Amino acid sequence: MPAWYNIKGNPGDIMSLKEDKRGLLNSVNQIKQIVQREIKAGISPQKIMVVGHSQGASVALAVGLTSDYRLAGIIGLTKPENKIIPFFLYHNYYDDIIPAYIGDQSATLLKEKGYQVEFDNLFNGSHFFKPEELQEILTKKLKEFLA
Prior knowledge:
Blueprint: E1 7-8, E2 18-19, H1 21-40, E3 49-53, H2 55-66, E4 73-77, E5 86-92, H3 100-112, E6 116-122, H4 131-146
Helix pairs in contact: 1-2
GO molecular function, one term: palmitoyl-(protein) hydrolase activity
InterPro entries: AB_hydrolase_fold, LYPA1-2/EST-like, PLipase/COase/thioEstase
EC number: 3.1.2.22
């Protein structure tokens, strides 16, 4: 299965899994290069959102936390000057891969660090979002950000 970075350990015990930090940082840098190219092409950073699901959510969060720009926002589906960037985290409560409390803990940690965070548990589905659910979430947030 394609992945943003490697995860080692027993998938049945999510808390024991070890992330490949070098691979994660490589993915973050790849996304930052895409953002930089868009800015050089004339797109305002405040019109750029980074969206990720599952491992991509970790990458999106890391991009948002370390970005040199004030981006429009970060959406995760499952640096101090960037605390003004809003984070929107969504998690399917019945996720059969990542327990719901992991999403809640992520949101709580970000809030405790002073970030603007909106966290919603969705109660329909499992780990994967249906296309119409993703479209609804993205449409709503893009309209809010880009209005």
